[in-house]
Each structure stands twice: as C-alpha cells, then as structure tokens.
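Repro:
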Amino acid sequence: MSDLDAIDRAAAKLTNAEGGFPAQEQQPPGLTSKMEPLPDHGEEGWVGRERLPGLKALITGGDSGIGRAVAIAFAREGADVALSYLADEQSDAEDTKKWIEKAGRTCVLLPGDLTDEATARKVVDDAAEQLGGLTTVVNNAGFQWARRDRGLADLTTAEMDQVFRTNLYAMFWITQQALQYLGKGASVINVSSIQAYDPSTALIDYASTKAAINNFTVNLAAELGPKGIRVNAVAPGPIWTPLQPATKPGESMPTFGGDTPLGRAGQPSELAGAFVFLASQLEASYVSATVIGVTGGKPVF
C-alpha cells in the first residue's frame, strides 16, 4: 500500500458514510479529548527526516488542532517548540508535549490569553528565554463564532472584540515582540483561511481578519526581506479541530467539509507539510509573501 493510499484510508476512518462527522457541540475553546472521532495530528503517521535541525519555534494555539500537528511535525524534523494556549486547554497542551518529548525535543508550555497585550509579549520573551533563542514564529491562534442566524445583523461588539483581538491584535503583538529575536534565516508563518477568499455569511468578522492576515503577510515580507527573514502564510480549508464543534452548530458537523472538491474535511496532519516546507531555510529559502492553500480543492486566488 502506498503512502497516498494510507492517507486516504486514514481519512476515511475519521469520517462517517456521508463524509462528515457526528453531530456534536462543545463550549469554547473546546478540547480534543471530547471530539468524536479524534483528529489525526500525525501522531502515528508523520515520519521525520531532519528537515528542521536546530529550529526554535513558538506556535500559538499549539495545544490542539493545526497547532498540535505542526508542533509534532516540527519536533520530528529536529525542532524545539514552545506552545502558547489558553489555560483551559492545559490537558491538550500536556498531551502535545508528550509527543514532542517522545521525539526527543524540548517542549515549553506557555499558557495565557493572547488577547491581553502584556501576556502576548511575555509569551514571546519566555519562549525565547526557555528555548535559548527563537527562529520561527507560527501565528496559529484563532477564534470564530458561527452560532448566529444572520451575518452582520447578529454580530455583537463583544464577539468582534474576541475575534479581532485573537486573530489580529495578538498576531501583531507576538510578531512585533519576536522581531528582537529573529535574525537572518528566520521565518514567520501566519495562518490565513479559505474564508479570506470565499467568506461565509455567518463568519463576516472572522473572514475579515483572515483577509487582513494575508495583507499583513505581504507587507511584513517586504519589510523583513532585507534582513533575510521570510514571512508566509498557510490558508486552511475546513479542518477537523476543536474550533469546529466549539463554535459552530452541532447539527452542521455531519456535512462539515462536504462542499470541497475533495468532498471531505481535512485532518490537521494534512497541513503539517506546508508549515514544515515554509519553515525550512533549505527548502523555502526563496519563498516569501506567499499564501499556500490547503483547502481540499477550493481556490486561494
């Protein structure tokens, strides 16, 4: 059986006959352990090839979902990792840490709410201090809220504050603070979304932040290019992470991801390769200001 066959079979096991997931809901921020089925973060499938030796990475939202998959892949490729996450996600963070340490790498746990500026900046300083430096920042932490009947009409200021401060303000603060540690060969990887290109009505605020992240990526790449620092983004499509049952109506889970050309949602492990590529100075040394879509076939242009 080929690697591609194995991936297809693994994905099939993690979806029901209709291509989606059982109806389910959680309260934000959501936990991996309460999901059915459990997502695939590459725990059993990702094979490291020492593509990121000596990398020292801070991953926000690194406890679960895409962040966990990236952390596991980075560790197996030779990187030490610091994980930023909310205190309520401690159990997920501890589980991710076990996988990183099993790969023989250092893992630093940094709980805290990044919507607070002082906390966001301290997370960066603590990561750099405890890792002995910082070469890569993955701005992955994000929030959305799709349990509303209408778009703008149902959007509250409190919801906007949480989405904008989590997705944009924190990214600005984290990256700004990291600049004092990043040098030639370093990289920043932001997490955009298919929502930046094909926005859903109920996610008007979230989609707006993702479009802004694309612009931030291009602007910062132009600013930091002369210093030898690359800035890129990954735009996921529908991915099976705790954010989905924690922020969307439970009855939407059976059809989640079914509108993609590939006909299903993606697993977090299926994004890890894009992040590893962008983090590699050897493989992506001339790649900057780029958004890589991992969307199940939905276009990102």
